[in-house]
């Protein structure tokens, strides 16, 4: 019955059956027994997956749903949405990864038994692997047996006792608490922060009257005595009292932070009852408007995960742990999905299964997330160097922390304002390494989950151009050691937050917009970062390195100074020369080699021998002018004159050779002939008859496989794309294949040669693999490029033209005649390539001449 809750759209049915969406529409019209819609809208209905599978098998249109596709459709059509389904699946995959025998025992019975046994089993796995928020409520997830996710400011011992306050265990003086005190997120004024042994201010403020109370908030480990603490008469709690279902029964639990005479929790005491400066709720702050993962992975709508009260992530309350084990009733609709995911994990592994599903979801919703490319994440982790404790305060989907080299005893700290992203990051990191993961939900700048952490490294892809980052609420925050950021300088607030969370000598690497290096509103903070030796390097990345792809982003490398250098210098690197063509992306190998080589040499010597046009170390005094402009391009010398002139000469010689070759390849005059009347066939008929195999581009694959994109086919360039990393089997090209783009309306087909063979097929491409004994590849590609042929096979949407490759025509000719046509088509292809090459060389020569004449390296006569 539960499987019927999983819904699938017409596009999903088309993928299951390997047909186009038009075929699904025809089935609905022609077959009265086609399953009726169970959801969606009139224009985009959804159907029960089980009913669709049964109908397809009955019609002989589906022998068996591929396991990967079945699991993905169950996840995408989950009644609570794909994000909730991903969290449930990730929890179970971690259980399978850590304790496979427990999963085998739980899954042996019915779905109801599985859902009843899983919460207790998941808690035992999540507590040691995905630890709670230190300083926020004891060990594990919300404290030992105090309730997973219930420890919002209190753990096993209620109010933290000796050494239980925030910042008590990190080695730096407490910001919001001290040894022997229980202050959590009190006022940030250092003169009045939880002073005195009698100050019990836990989340004190005029608005804190209860914790997660309300009829809509599921109780967490609720007991008969707990009055007003996570109470919920309408929703069954996690680990409820012994009268409920017998699922992980717990004895009566005393109220957390409650007293015999008061039914409320965290009642404002007589001390610190003024609105806290560091408490946005007390001054009208709105953390929901600020997303700590904007630049990393921000969904359009932020939902609260099951078992987490919405009040737990408001601006006025401390951040909550990222993961709370779902309850039995919440897991019951996911039971078929969990069983399918376990079956897939048995084939490819638990980690690979989660990466496949997460990558498929991110790829299916490209406009909802702004991701950090894996190559950039690896570069940032390498710049930070090996570290035992690493923090990402805007973690998104965890790409940066996932790129960190594992070490024994490693701890990974993460925070994100989106609950679902924080949970997915925690699961992804726990599956990826053996490190202890401490992930939390909350607005990092307004409600830091790790206020006393001293990390060895901080990696961050912060939100750009945020104006509602807490400027008014955080005016007296002690993190602004280098100056109070202007409202328009949110990025400099993240820079100082990262420095505040570093141990002395620790390294932070942040992805920054280029404007942060030169805006006048931030010049005083930039100057102080330089004077005190905190800013060590600024690296200008090529255009297209990360979203937004149209500007060259910067990397800032910072170190918390343990001492000020005697003669401080700053490393400036510009890798703009390694930008790729159009959408191909940069040459990451060249970028990585250039940046790491310059940084490591600078880190050893404290200075770098000048590398014209690429890198140099600049004395701080040279940068401390009225602008304090740190843009590398403005301080790097141009390439050596001799090299520039010599390069222009080489380009001119290559252009001359190419033009001579182009002249030789020019087709001879065409002889007139009457229109031919050949018998015609279609690509679809040839595929059904076995004369060729037809494949479409995939949605994922191995990260290191080069990908042939539709732009590469249209531009005639080498494979330049990437696919989301997953264990999905990519479609690999072979020499002799014919690749056709399906979008854009242009008449184009490309025959794969030996240099391109082996690349993965990208999206919006169709691959045709002809049987060489019946069909010549060049003959096939040539006739597919006919303008009239493409026009009759194209369909038009409101904003795009799509080609139905199956409808393309070509004549029925014997193989000998095909080879004659194929030789002529091949000659035309060589001529076209030569023209393109000559065009690129010509543009390069013209640009070089303009640059040489304007910078004085080329004489006008």
Automatic annotation (TrEMBL):
InterPro entries linked to this entry: DNA_methylase_A-5, Restrct_endonuc_typeI_TRD_sf, SAM-dependent_MTases_sf, Type-I_RE_MTase_Subunit
Gene Ontology terms, MF aspect: methyltransferase activity
Domain DNA methylase adenine-specific: 354-637
Alphabetical UniProt keywords: DNA-binding, Methyltransferase, Restriction system, Transferase
Region feature Disordered, mapped onto this chain: 186-333
GO biological process: methylation
Biased amino acid composition, Pro residues: 318-328
Protein's name according to its UniProt entry: N-6 DNA methylase
